[in-house]
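W.,

You were right to be curious about this one. When I first looked at the sequence I had no strong expectations either way, so I just let the prediction run and decided to look at it fresh. Below is the sequence, 321 residues in total, followed by the output.
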Amino acid sequence: MTAMAWQTTSNVIEFLAAAGGYLRAEPARNTVILSVTETMRASAVARAGKSAAGAESAAAAGEAAAAGEAAAAGEAAAGEAAAGPLFGWFRDPSGVVAGAFMHTPPFPVVLTEVGLTAAAELAAVTLAARPLGGVNAYPDVARAFADGWRGGHPGGRAEVYRRQRLYRLAELVWPDPAPAGTARVAADADAPLAGDWFTAFAVEVDDMGRGVDQSAAAREKISHGGVTLWDDAGGRPVALACNTVQVSGMARIGPVYTPPEARGRGYGSAATAAVSRRLREDGVGDVVLYTDLANPVSNSIYQRIGYRAVEDRVVLSFQAG
């Protein structure tokens, strides 16, 4: 559907067909939308493949009608899902894509660089009927979006939830002194531990999605080699550093987590350095990560191992009046 220049879809493949070129032109700056939608795209393709194989088998067994009914029921249920993922792109007067957004509740809307009028219109018109918990954007874009949202929510408040800084790896510098132990890519057997640490991380950083079950996220990252554990000298896991799938020569590191009892020994730095080195060896040109500007320790650590600041973003949280 269209609201002035914004077009939206719940189909991630349709979204990437329309806005993928725009996003891939600056993969580091658009890292969150690219990495999340690539994971969703791959999952959708895999599901479609399984559905096609299942339908073939059903037809051979004379069950094509039943399979068709099941597929139709599944489509109806998907269409009725309330506040499911939604994506959109903005076209300038010449028809060129000049902005995009992604909303995957309960997380905030993630918005690219876009004109301030378009940002306000997105909140006030295109997403007016959609429950919004906040927005993740460049500061001026976020303020314009919040102004548009407040227009439909008299008395509503938009407050700074987190200020973030994007870093890109320049030349990797191994931690010195390096902690005892070794890095290894997590296996399926590590999924329960990874899920627990994902949950602990979300709670500790007060993530907007902290109430979401993290076990599926841990398994998904492990499935593509995206979780690296640092084992101490005794072989006990003491930290993890994760990475997204590679998209357009870019991959993002996160989360990075060390349980409280193991902190202060450099394990998190070493795990991050190990992931960074592996990604570079795999040919990833843009290795990036986000930090919370309220945490000077993490910002300092990442700079020491070779990360350099690129740009800042802000997450605003919305509270209805």
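Here's what jumped out at me. The longest strand covers residues 157-169. And, maybe more interesting for your project: Residues 55-81 have pLDDT under 50 and may be disordered.

Coffee later to discuss?

I.
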